[in-house]
Queue: 4 jobs
Job 1
Amino acid sequence: EDPLREVLKSPRATLNLYSQFKAKNHLKFSTGEDVMRLRLIRANAEHVADYNEDTEDSAGYALNKFSAMTPGEKQRYLGLNITSMTPGPEDTVLRSGVGNPSKLLWTDKGYVTPFNDHLTCLSFFSF
């Protein structure tokens, strides 16, 4: 059983988890909104625990800044933000003539950087 599942069994532990989440993410809500955000966190914590208990999936899941967002708020982070991009001429695309490899792991090449949250630039997450 996922440790998060144990937390969710206790209302007091769930409130403590929510308080820690708000502190970590520097969040403050009015009383009415706080109740709604707690419900979102609880529902998302249930999903996280479900995913972590899936024995066929080796990934580890956790609550993140999206866990207390409404679907409308999450929508702002979807899609490509091209507001600062300027198009280049089509003929600048380079073509080497070499086919794509059947497998390429950027981690093996040392090109993958640590996770970065770009906060308000709306470019979602980059690696």
Note: The beta strands are 116-117, 125-126.
Job 2
Amino acid sequence: NIEEKEHFCFRNCMSRDLGLSEKDYDNHTAVEEFIQGIENDFTTVLILEYLPMSLVLLKRRMCWTIYDILYIDKANMTSKYKRAYVTGQMKDTFYKRNYADLLLYTRLNDSLHRQINQEGTDFVEEVKHFVGVNNNVSRYCLSDTSKLQGKMVVKRTR
């Protein structure tokens, strides 16, 4: 029974986690009002597909340093999972069943890119610098070098 499995979150997982009631999943007016509330509550969001840009934007908003946004990039490590082939029909079904999440993602993604476009010409260079530093730090931390050489020094950015 699919309704019983909903609690494992097969539908509108992001929206559910942010407070959308399951009874409102198919109510487009309720979904629109819910997303408007999310947009009012969160001025900056991070999106995984644009994680480096999202983190640099967050760094600027929070007046943080590059040290505050470094992370180990496990996505580049080998995975035992293989990417599944997704057909057009599978996508269509997913989009229909996850209307709230699709709309939420689209709106927040648009918002993120509007904010990035307002950051100025040095933003792209800062993101490139961050990606390079983060890759170096990830490699360093995951290698035996860190045990032999001690601390790694990272140059300050904007």
Note: The chain has a mean pLDDT of 88.
Job 3
Amino acid sequence: SIIAYAIVSHEYHAHLSDRPIEKDKQKDKERVKEKEKEFEEKEREEREVGNSLNTEVIMAHPLQLTEAPLERAEITLKDRPNSSDENLLLSSKESVVSEPLNHSKAMHVKVSFTDESPQWKIRYTVTCYYAKQFDGLRKKCCPSEMDFVRSLCHCKKWGAQGGKSNVFFAKTLDDRFVIKQVTKTELESFIKFAPEYFKYLSDALSSGSPTCLAKILGIFQVTVKHAKGGKEVRMDLMVMENLLYGRHVTRIYDLKGSVRSRYNADATGTNKVLLDQNLLESMLTNPIFIGNKAKRLLERAVWNDTSFLASADVMDYSLLVGVDEERQELVLGIIDFMRQYTWDKHLETWVKASGI
């Protein structure tokens, strides 16, 4: 992955440590070789143990990773005598939040490198937005930066369902992360309210306040330029946690709290994304039961998150809900919260309200 290469580059780490950026390509190559060696050693150890990925889910905080899996908010479908509703949104016991989450200067870093082969020469440029802040967030949420980079090294295109934007989607082969293309408007909106986003997560991690925001772990702009012909391709990408990692969900809902054009008539097949009216319809014959304490925690988490998003003028997000009947749990998170309420969205709301 081009992004993974940029994250292990000398320029990127010099930026994080506030050292002057040295134009030393040999150091970049040595760093990459060291990372590759670490990857190989860890993979060898995992093969010897016979378990390359730890799939046990241990709740620590809805925005925090423990050992291997990405964390997510979980709700038990029914009360069980041997389990606690604390599996929903347990508070983090760590009160120390990494300073880079609130660091405000030197926000972005640009890394460039060239792939020279006998057939062609390609110039890659990766802009890592809010590099220090995202690095600080990943340190709190991921097992290690090496695991994050290793996941990004192996991705596949993914035909995500439920969206209408027809943007590019990909998933890492280990299923931990989702890579999604973001529009220019979404990128500009996020850059504006990103300081508030990092502050909100910092406060949530330190105080244990309930939240179910799906974590965005990096925003990148990737530019690929061919020396022959000068063709240039540019794409803005977001890396976020896969809420359904390690799960066997039988139903997936994308909920917005509206019934206008919110029904999926084709509900057959696996991994079909259902909408608000589908949920209302299924509740008549197949209702979902949760305990009172879990319900209160869920309401608190949604209240906290929507209050934050409203304060940042963010709208048009969704609550993704997966039903894991095997574990009798719900897996949920608020997604697609990069769009602020600008004049075009105001016009869209007016058109919908007028019935045009």
Note: The first helix runs from residue 2 to 7.
Job 4
Amino acid sequence: KVEDREPIGREVIEKNTKSLTGWLTQFFEKNRRTKGSIRIVNNIDWYKDMTALDFFSTYGSEMRLSTMLGREFVQARLNGSGLSYKEFSYQMFQAIDFVHLHKQYGCNLQIGGSDQWCNILGGCRLVRKLANEEVHGMCLPLITNPRGEKISKSAMNTIWLDAKKTTPFQLYQYFISVEDSVIDHYMNVFALSTVKELRRIAKEALNEKDAWFRQRILAKEITCLVHSQHDYDVAVAVTNVLYSRGGKKYSSDVADLSENMLEVLFKEVPSSEFPRSYMKTVDIQKFLLHIKVIRQGGLNKVKVALRTGLFTCNGQVVNEVSELTDFKLMHDKYSLFRHGKKGMHLVRWTDDAEDSKMESEVD
């Protein structure tokens, strides 16, 4: 890290701990290969009663300042933005964690990203000094984007297990959109396939007309692994509608949307809610202008698009003489308006008859 971590309060820490514990437990327990095999511990349990004197007398004398100061990240910070003692001592706490886990649970291997190498090595040395036993560390290549930037929560470009932070649809979209320059690396890191299976998939990809063959395989595996087959099916259906080129296939995909799929789509595309009463009173041309299915242009552009059949509502063509009531609502509440290949707006009609800003603007 090039800057100190932002301080957070105890309540936030406890909330984050509870959330992480819940999601990690759920993730491993739903997989038959890891079910019942995970133990999650919190290092506050061995630090809360440790005094500063305990800390320095037990561990401080075993850690050499010259070694810690010589580490690359420390030198980079000292020669750059500076380094607080809090940030400098992080490596000490990580080493002590390894000591405790080894003593209490027989943990002999610490795994981390390649940027954790020095901290892991420090833990191995501390265990050797205090327990006179050999332990091991293993580092994995960092997950980076095509620009070589680390993907992590601290870099603000991460994806999450929590569906409230990264929805199943967004997770699917992330992996199906992986660039070819990193797909080999991502398949090796994220897919649970054997090396032999990965080679077979790579070979098949060369003969496939689908340019996103491996991305689709990876997106399916990750979405099902983190969430469920149902969430994957919903993500695929919504994707088919969002990126369809139109025509009969688009109309069919729209007709097949379940209410759950429409709820997902409502969060992913421009959307709005209006009282059902508007369907009988609002001019469709002004309505389409208001919801901005056409991103640029005025009423004349809307009229031209209507004359040329570029607008659809729930997969059916909208023309100059159409009215909102001409189109059957999907699941009795949704209308999906589309213009060309990219313009899209999903309307949810409600039984609420309260006034809206739209009333004066459209009328």
Note: The chain has 19 helices and seven strands.
